[in-house]
Amino acid sequence: VRIKNALNHCYELAMGGTAVGTGINSVEGFSDASAEEIAKLTGLPFVTAPNKFEALGGQDSIVELSSALKTVAASLNKIANDIRWLGSGPRSGIGEIILPTNEPGSSIMPGKVNPTQAEAVTMVCTQVIGNDVTITIAGASGNFELNVYRPVLAFNILQSIRLMAEVSVSFAENCVDGILANEERIHKNLHNSLMLVTALNPHIGYDKAAEVAKKAHKENKTLRETIIELGYMSGEDFDRLVKPEIMIKPRKKN
């Protein structure tokens, strides 16, 4: 949506503004006719820019589009890193998902699966974010009625578009589509989590819940074992109240 919104201004053409936006030596109606013809040839909604001084002197539409691409890159970088961490392991990391094996692993550690697709995404995102800095400076460097930085603007915005498009398809096809849940590891991590104690706050109070969590952590026991040992709750009550599947939304009103 961000990119689509930013594209709207990129469809405004300065053609017909001639050198600096006055339109001198251009024929009346040329700008509208040329925009219509380009729109017809490309199937895209090109129009003539309402202010050709701005369209030539500033390159705000490219800066805006680059900013939208940077925002997508930042979001995609976070997603790729989350996937990389969730797939870390197989034993010492989180290991809650199993990543596809796209190529032989480490040359020094047999059996290791490298998160190459996620790493490729993060490298592309780093490049796109860097390109945005270049584009921002280039867009701000126009003087009066002309911006002569359009070659570097064009190079970087086209590279950002191509890289984001290609890495998104590659990431989906070679990584995301093949991700499997490590259900055994998820179950173990979930039911050993001390944060499940949050569900007990309304029933035994914050202070006792904190005591249970600290004692369980110190003695390497489960919350269930610890709360029974402290005498704050029976095992049956614990099982009834601590259900992760109902802890993903607000409690119903009594």
Question: Strand-and-helix sequence, N→C?
Answer: HEHEHHEHHEHHHHH
From the alpha carbons, calculate the radius of gyration and give it in angstroms. Answer: 28 Å
CATH architecture of the largest domain: Up-down Bundle
CATH homolog superfamily of the largest domain: Fumarase/aspartase (Central domain)
The overall pLDDT average reads 93
Number of helices: 11
Poorly predicted runs are none
Task: Give me a quick take on this structure.
The protein has 254 residues and is mainly α. It contains eleven helices and four strands; from the N terminus they run αβαβααβααβααααα. β1, α2 and β2 (47-48) form a beta-alpha-beta unit.
